[in-house]
């Protein structure tokens, strides 16, 4: 009710170019000294991105943009009726989905009834452009939940994803990491970096016909306060956004037909360090991923009593 009252009585404002730039014009010294720099940044923010929603009754799902899957050519018509062609528009991830959506739309006879809209987004980054095709990708009809061939364990960390490939009897057959750097990145850059690594992770699981196992994380305690007990690491951890990573993994896995098992994270790193790190010749995070996979498969792991006592004493000191 309060929101309805505000919408009725309050005049809604619009800030072109982002509120950050609007405030920065008055607060940042660099903009005070060089007004043309602010003007340039404002033009880039205001006109640097264009998104055109699709129409289900359009021939190729969009009245402005038209994509040719055979030649990978994207054409669009501007307001002044000027036709612009972009050659070699290829999507590293999802090219098959784009081709299928456009071919299906073009072959439909009754587009008003069965058609699907296809949106397009064009971003100007100065030295290059980013083209995005916005389509609805249905989830895979078959979800691989079987652990008969094994499991792929995943341990999420501040600067990499540790992965362990486990066979049906609980043995580690492969272990590696997917490194990345989120330091100093914007929220949008963090999202893109995470998405790229998640795609590689899920594709690996699809290739080996195995589900994924991740740990249920408490970002405020288990991954921030204890393992990285300093302010700089905690700041990087807050940028890392574990929730964003787990959501990205689940979303991508659902589309690709890969099941995701979520297990209790208690003592996974300690068990991996004490029992498997030296034996397998892997890092502590790879060993933790191995323990996560085994736990999801039903194998029981216990922390050695003597080692657990020593660790507790050190922690209390």
TrEMBL record:
The keyword DNA-binding applies. The keyword DNA-binding applies. Keywords: DNA-binding. It comes from the Bacteria. GO terms for molecular function: DNA binding. This is Transposase, IS605 OrfB family, central region. It comes from Halolactibacillus miurensis.
């Amino acid at each position: 009710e309060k929101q309805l009252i505000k919408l009725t009585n309050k005049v809604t404002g619009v800030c072109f170019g982002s509120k950050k730039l609007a405030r920065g014009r008055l607060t940042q010294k660099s903009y005070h000294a060089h007004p043309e720099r602010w003007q340039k940044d404002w033009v880039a923010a205001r006109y640097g991105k264009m998104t055109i929603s699709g129409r289900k009754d359009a021939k190729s799902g969009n009245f402005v943009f038209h994509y040719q899957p055979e030649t990978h050519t994207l054409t669009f018509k501007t307001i002044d009726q000027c036709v612009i062609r972009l050659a070699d528009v290829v999507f590293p991830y999802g090219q098959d989905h784009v081709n299928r959506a456009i071919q299906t739309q073009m072959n439909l006879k009754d587009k008003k009834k069965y058609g699907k809209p296809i949106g397009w987004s064009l971003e100007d980054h100065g030295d290059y452009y980013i083209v995005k095709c916005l389509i609805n990708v249905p989830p895979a009809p078959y979800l691989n939940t079987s652990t008969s061939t094994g499991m792929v364990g995943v341990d999420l960390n501040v600067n990499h994803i540790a992965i362990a490939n486990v066979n049906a009897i609980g043995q580690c057959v492969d272990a590696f990491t997917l490194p990345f750097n989120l330091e100093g990145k914007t929220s949008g850059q963090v999202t893109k970096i995470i998405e790229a690594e998640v795609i590689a992770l899920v594709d690996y699981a699809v290739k080996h016909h195995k589900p994924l196992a991740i740990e249920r994380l408490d970002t405020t305690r288990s991954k921030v306060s204890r393992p990285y007990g300093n302010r700089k690491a905690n700041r990087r951890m807050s940028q890392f956004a574990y929730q964003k990573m787990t959501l990205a993994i689940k979303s991508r896995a659902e589309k690709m037909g890969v099941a995701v098992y979520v297990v209790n994270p208690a003592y996974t790193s300690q068990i991996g360090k004490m029992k498997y790190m030296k034996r397998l010749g892997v890092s502590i995070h790879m060993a933790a991923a191995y323990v996560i996979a085994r736990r999801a498969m039903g194998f029981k792991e216990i922390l050695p009593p003597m080692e657990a006592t020593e660790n507790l004493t050190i922690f209390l000191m």
